[in-house]
Specification:
672 residues; alpha+beta; Alpha-Beta Plaits; 22 helices
């Protein structure tokens, strides 16, 4: 439970070694780069190199997505947990020398992708035209026939259903004197009626105007060939396009052996982008460069010695100035380190704050297990996380932390399940009663402590007790921070006074009728202690009034602010009540699990009953575990962020983000 001490490092060297030094620092994964005060590197060639690297990364990523689509790589659903292939510096450099070949492969694959898209577009166009020619099958003349020596030929379709009679009536209504035409109807449907109409050329204008108003539409394809001939050409063109697309896909599949080179191109481009962007924070002279940053104090001398031995550089180490912003890196043991991500998501410790991870981890696992509180679910979490951690040792740091955190949460859940007598709800008792003839009044799996379903108010009281302890620890950490900063008056006004007031009020509450109505029985407190409790509460209240704003010179304002601080007792009450969610979620898990078991046992002890029991059990408990595991995770985080951290923690520290090779996806470079 600590924040790693940092030292400031300034590196000065020759420009020709600049890239090599950056690569070295990147492999060490310890140098947090900061901006040098001098003029920064912003040469056009650097920007061009960044753009080139970004383009190559994008090119490789697009080519890999294409390969995954056309020629998926084997690996299964857990492939992402395996982590990248580890390469030493020599292997990495050997592969880096073939980057241009990989870039050419990516370009070639993406050109083939464009060819596939073009072929698919042509095939789709042919299919649309083929479907559009179906109504004109049997036309018996070219589709572009427009006239004879004396007549105009009109080929098209009218919307809806038409017949010779309805067409004649429409002509008569619009053109009473017109009857010099011939019409032939082709095979239509309810949406359109295709037809061929012949009329004298002198009547063509009026007839075309009439048909236009009725929605007359020409064929989708106008050709000097008959529909059957046009269909034959279109089928040939479509087949050729499909064949071309398949050949291009086959060529892409044949190039799948280059997938690894594309993956390396992507990763190496990311590292190059990171190095080049770092140059934006570097300083430069006519022939020199300067790098400024922070490194862990324990590693600083080793880094300095190694750099000065390998390169023509000068490395200077200094302690950070008091007003300087120092990046924050956390260091915790194997038990608490998995919960660092919880702290980081809220905010890293700010100036004068301690790392709360170690203490928070204890409460995190404790409260999570209490909310889920089923030994069966906990056992599944323990076994599942242990298998994943064992089978995939190279998974990413964040994934490993999460798996380890849920492993310990599973241990806590298992213990609470044994204490409360929950193993997949009451499945042991249900199975014993349903399939083995054990009498209903015999309890097979008994809780080591008590069953929350039988004594919910007892669990509620303990939930409040755990909440008070959680909050008091948070307040105590605040007191420690204030004393460490030698802010004694703030400690008295903001911590000690609250402890006195709250402890006094709690001791006054325990023997009261209100507490007895909640817990079922009052707690006997000797009269002298009750009197002392009143004194404690009074002293605490007076302390808040007088010292909560002790630095205010105006006494009236000091009292007003103290009274406002005293009003914060309502916030404490709200915080304690928030821990009733421990009861709610714990009961929800047990109740739903018991209902699932009861439903599964409804079908009796026969063969079909056993089969249905297993199906309902597996489906029901899978859903119940998923829902309540999510609920326990969300509400455990909330109790840390709102109630616990709210008592002492502000966060806001700058994250320690060293130059690293860990941001790659497929390959990892061995650390120096």
């Amino acid at each position: 439970m600590s924040v790693i001490s940092m030292q400031k490092m300034l590196i000065a060297g020759m420009q020709e070694e600049q890239d090599a030094v950056l690569k070295d620092l990147q492999r060490r994964r310890l140098f947090h780069l900061t901006k040098v005060e001098e003029e920064n590197l912003s040469a056009p060639e650097v920007r061009e190199r960044i753009q080139k690297a970004e383009k190559q990364a994008q090119l490789a990523d697009s080519a890999l997505k294409l390969l995954d689509e056309v020629a998926p790589a084997s690996g299964g659903m857990f492939a992402s947990l395996k982590g990248g292939t580890e390469l030493n510096a020599g292997e990495w450099q050997a592969r880096a020398e073939k980057r241009e070949e990989a870039a050419q492969l990516a370009t070639s694959l993406l050109e083939k992708q464009k060819g596939i898209a073009d072929a698919a577009s042509r095939a789709a166009r042919c299919q649309v035209l083929l479907e559009g020619l179906v109504p004109w099958e049997g036309l018996g003349m070219p589709l572009n026939t427009s006239e004879t020596e004396r007549c105009r030929v009109l080929i098209g379709a009218l919307p809806g259903v038409w017949s010779e009679e309805t067409l004649r009536e429409a002509f008569h209504e619009a053109m009473p004197d017109f009857d010099s035409y011939e019409v032939e109807f082709l095979q239509g449907d309810s949406t359109q009626t295709p037809l061929v109409l012949l009329c004298l050329k002198e009547d063509a204008g009026a007839v075309e105007e009439f048909l236009r108003k009725k929605g007359f539409a020409r064929p989708i394809l106008v050709s000097d060939k008959t529909p059957e001939q046009a269909e034959e050409d279109l089928r040939f063109e479509k087949d050729a396009a499909v064949t071309e697309g398949e050949e291009l896909k086959a060529a892409i599949r044949a190039a799948a052996s280059g997938r690894d080179s594309l993956r390396f191109l992507y990763d190496d481009s990311l590292l190059e982008i990171s190095r080049l962007q770092a140059l934006g924070k570097a300083g430069e002279g006519s022939r020199s460069f300067f790098l400024s940053g922070f490194v862990p104090k324990a590693k600083a001398e080793d880094i300095k010695k190694s750099l000065e031995e390998k390169y023509t550089v000068s490395v200077t180490l200094t302690d950070p100035d008091p007003e300087e912003t120092v990046p924050i890196a956390l260091h915790n043991n194997r038990f608490s380190a998995p919960t660092e991500s919880v702290v980081e998501s809220y905010g890293l410790p700010g100036e004068g704050e301690v790392d709360p991870t170690g203490i928070m981890a204890i409460f995190y696992y404790f409260l999570f297990g209490l909310m889920l509180s089923d030994a069966g679910y906990g056992l599944l979490m323990i076994v599942g996380c242990a298998i994943v951690l064992k089978k995939f040792p190279k998974m990413s740091r964040s994934m490993k932390q999460m798996m380890t955190m849920f492993f310990w949460c599973g241990v806590s859940t298992f213990i609470w399940g044994l204490l409360f007598g929950g193993f997949f709800g009451d499945v042991i008792d249900v199975v014993a009663h349903t399939f083995f003839g054990v009498p209903q009044d015999v309890q097979v799996f008994k809780p080591l402590w008590f069953a929350p379903l039988e004594k919910p108010m007892k669990l509620l009281v303990y939930s409040f007790l755990f909440g008070v302890i959680h909050l008091f620890v948070g307040l105590a950490i605040k007191g420690y921070q204030l004393l460490k900063q030698k802010r004694v008056m703030d400690f008295i006004g903001s911590v000690l006074s609250w402890f006195l007031l709250l402890i006094g009020l709690i001791l006054m509450l325990l023997p009261s009728d209100l507490f007895a109505s909640i817990s079922g029985s009052p707690i006997a407190i000797p009269a002298p202690i009750q009197s002392a409790a009143k004194i404690l509460a009074l002293v605490g209240a007076v302390g808040l009034l007088l010292f909560a704003a002790w630095d205010r010179k105006n006494f009236g304002l000091r009292l007003a602010l103290g009274a406002y601080e005293l009003y914060g007792i309502t916030g404490w009450l709200s915080d304690v009540l928030s821990y009733s969610r421990l009861l709610a979620l714990g009961l929800a898990t047990s109740v739903i699990a018991s209902v699932i078991n009861s439903m599964a046992a409804m079908f009796g002890s026969g063969v079909m009953g056993v089969i249905l029991f297993i199906i309902i059990f597996l489906v029901g408990h899978t859903l119940n575990m998923a829902i309540n595991l999510l609920g326990a995770y969300v509400h455990t985080n909330r109790l840390q962020y709102v109630e616990f951290f709210g008592k002492f923690y502000d966060g806001g520290g700058e994250a320690y983000e060293p130059l690293t090779t860990e941001n790659t996806k497929y390959y990892h470079m061995e650390e120096v």
